[in-house]
Amino acid sequence: MSRTPGTSRASKGNKNRRKSRTVTESSQSLDVNAKTPGVRRRGSSAKLEDDGTQMENQKSHAKSKVGSVQKTVGGDSEYYHKALHDFVMEAVKVGPVKLAADFTATRLAMPKNLPKTAFLANPTKNRYKDVFCLDQSIVKLTWPADDPNDYIHANYVPIEDQKKYICTQGPTEKTVIDFWRIIWQEKCKGILMLTEVMEQGKKKCEQYWPTKLGEEAEYGPVKVKVLKILTPEDHLHCTRLEVSAEDSTLTVEHMLWKNWPDRGVPKEYLSCFRMIRKMTQYVPVVVHCSAGIGRTGTIVGLEMMDNKLRKGEVCPLSDIVAELRTHRHGSVQTMFQFLYMHRTLMELAVNKRVVAKDELKDFYEKYEVIINKQGAS
User: Fold this and answer.
1) Residue 319 and residue 174 in contact, taking contact as beta carbons nearer than 8 Å
2) Which fold has domain 113-356?
């Protein structure tokens, strides 16, 4: 059933996939009194760039559940640092050219016949006809109960069996109301928007929220009001929204990453982790770009990889992408986004001082050549 958008009052993975290895296994056990092999550290007085974890790092070091084995470094476990180090150095060894080839192979191996009946039955509610919404992880609209339309192009993406993310397309004129229905239904307290409304003269997303301080708008059964506007970084625009329905309210943090090129990559790296750390407190988080798979998959995939590393596990990033695609089909669209994920994790490793920047010089140079040659930045 088609509706008019809001009106403003103010104006399982591949079986052949390599299994992840855990650096905490007995064959690779760590001597907690020894320095981590290959890990370089500087004096504690040096200032770290904020990677979104500094607040955690300043907390007192409570004893880990596994006792002295989980020795911490700046709030992180040594197993995390070791896993991050090993992942980065393996990527350096492979190099960006081979990683790009691996990504192409991963795309060819992507499952092609997963059920998508709801997607096929609702063509007018899909932004792109070749970006599928899988039945197995689809978010079904159930609120309000008297609305017969239960379809939205959105999928749950779990991390550690928790429905942490809802990945969706940028709302269209016909789906703005459905977008706010899902926010209210799932009690989402965070929205991460990775596209702008207009990019290179083309509409990539509907203007689905009010933008001026104090402005209100109605979207079907939901009312939205702007409470606060912040710009913590040049490319990040944050809006605190009051969402109300059924005589109750929900505070929602809306974070817009500006100037991330479609199908390309930004120049910022640690911003990804700052956003991830901030959004962790707002679970479940709705993440979208235009199609809801490229930039969206890049950010969600980075947290999936970081989460694995924090458990002391190391695997190729292609395994993470393959797993992500079983939930949100087509996630991580381009090899540039795939390489950017590696480059971002390298920047994180440098910031945490588990590798020296000089060790990554060759990778960085080749990465820049690939990105600039294709005009992806």
Assistant:
1) no
2) Protein-Tyrosine Phosphatase; Chain A (3.90.190)
